[in-house]
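Protein modeling request. Please complete all fields; requests missing the sequence field cannot be processed.
Requester role: graduate student
Desired output: 3D structure, token encoding
Chains: 1
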Amino acid sequence: STHDLTAARTHGIIEALTSADVMTFADKGYQGARGSLRIPFKRRRFRPKLSRRQKTVNRAHAKIRARGERAIATLKTWKILAKLRCCPRRATAIVQATLV
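Delivered output (100 residues):
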């Protein structure tokens, strides 16, 4: 049991995404992460409200993340992935075949 950001740093996920030049939209839990991660603006305790521009950026960020979150939620409901006993590299082919 560890925080997502700590696990990502430990396993080199952030560095791998940055070196591959993959832009990734993360949630507010990744505040402080550098690289190609895009994180929404977070209101701090002593900072006044977010500006109109920051709210607009957060709204656009949420729209992009919503697609990925919905896709993950759909995949979690598929029982075949929960009981997958083959090599994880074959999971992509299984998901593609299921979608077809």
